[in-house]
Design brief:
The structure is a single chain. The chain is built from 15 helices and no strands. The chain has 349 residues and is mainly α.
């Protein structure tokens, strides 16, 4: 198992380098840099002024060099003193002298740059918004996963029964209904004065400071309903396959109680395939809740991603991308390890 994990970690690091370089390359294309210079400087800047602005901030260096500086494996750039004697460099802060600045200041060293939109360190912005989305992810998983597994198991126990058809129809409808549709319906029914059921709030802005039943229920249910159907369908298909296996038939012929067959013999094997699907929900929840966060005005990680992309905030967009890549790769690693434990037929070499 140790060698298996080490190999997976090695592949994960190599994949992370490739993905972050692709994102870094795309965000540092010259049209994006030109737009950044004119946004931070002056929209009437000439081409020479744009190149001078970018050159003073290290953007005109070769792409591998810039990536190495951003990653922290190459020393940051240092410009010669200007007319006023001010030295500019990647690692030189406002109140730090050039001789006292560190040589390396990248992601590895914990320096993620500063947001040009929010005027704050990228690390502080990302961690704050990630924490907000993390609470929503936790609440959604606590609702979505148990509900989906129960629906899938009940539907797959007796294929073709009325319960199977009813639960399968519900699963298909929940998956086929986009979040912006179900969210609007839930707001109209349970939070709007037009219907009269003011059980919950139609916004989750106050949940960023104080999570309550009234301001957090609707966004959680909106996301959970959309993801629940897919997991339930996968669980139902896996459960149906397991219930037709030879060892299940043997247990039924021996007179073992049906509930014992389901809980003791079929359930573990039926959860092997849904486990992978459940782990894939974490990356989806991290970046795929943009619509729900916008609909309920909940300024989490997805909201920051939209702001960074829409305002050409390169440093913030890179920071969000690093977190997204890390979450995807870690969940894949956990999924691989869990799959090995759940499926005893797999042998690790």
């Amino acid at each position: 198992m140790g060698k298996f994990i080490l190999r997976r970690v090695g592949v994960m690091l190599l994949t992370a380098l490739c993905l972050t370089f692709i994102v870094f390359f795309l965000t540092n294309l010259y049209p994006n840099l030109e737009k950044l210079a004119k946004t931070q400087g002056n929209f009437r800047m000439t081409d020479e002024a744009v190149q001078s602005w970018l050159g003073d901030r290290g953007y005109m260096q070769p792409m591998p060099v810039k990536y190495g500086e951003w990653l922290g494996v190459l020393p940051g750039y240092v410009n010669a003193p200007d007319d006023e004697g001010v030295v500019r460099g990647r690692c030189i802060a406002v109140n730090v002298a050039a001789e006292d600045a560190p040589r390396f200041c990248g992601v590895i060293q914990g320096y993620w740059g500063n947001s040009t939109v929010f005027k704050a360190p990228v690390w502080d912005i990302v961690t704050k918004r990630l924490g907000l989305t993390g609470w929503m992810m936790l609440a959604v998983m606590c609702v979505m996963v148990p509900g989906a597994l129960i629906i899938g198991v009940l539907a797959g126990m007796r294929e073709g029964s009325k319960m199977d058809r009813s639960l399968s129809t519900f699963s298909i409808l929940s998956t086929a209904t986009p979040e912006y549709v179900s969210g609007v319906i839930l707001i109209t029914v349970f939070a709007s004065s037009a219907v009269g059921l003011k059980w919950f709030k139609g916004t989750a802005t106050s949940a960023m400071d104080d999570i309550t039943w009234a301001n957090f229920t609707l966004p959680v249910i909106t996301i959970a309903l959309y993801g629940m159907g897919y997991i339930a369908r996968m669980t139902r298909a896996s459960m149906t396959e397991v219930m037709t296996a030879q060892y299940i038939r043997t247990a039924r012929l021996k007179g073992v109680k049906f509930s014992t067959i389901v809980l003791k013999h079929a359930l573990r094997n039926a959860l092997i395939a849904p486990f992978t699907v459940i782990m894939l929900q974490f990356p989806w929840l991290l970046n795929g809740v943009v619509i729900v966060e916008t609909l309920f005005n909940y300024k989490g990680f997805g909201w920051v991603l939209v702001q960074a992309a829409g305002n050409n905030d390169i440093e913030l967009l890179l920071g969000v991308s690093v977190v997204s890549v890390f979450v995807v790769l870690v969940t894949q690693l956990i999924s691989d390890i869990g799959y090995v434990y759940l499926n005893p037929r797999i042998r690790i070499t």
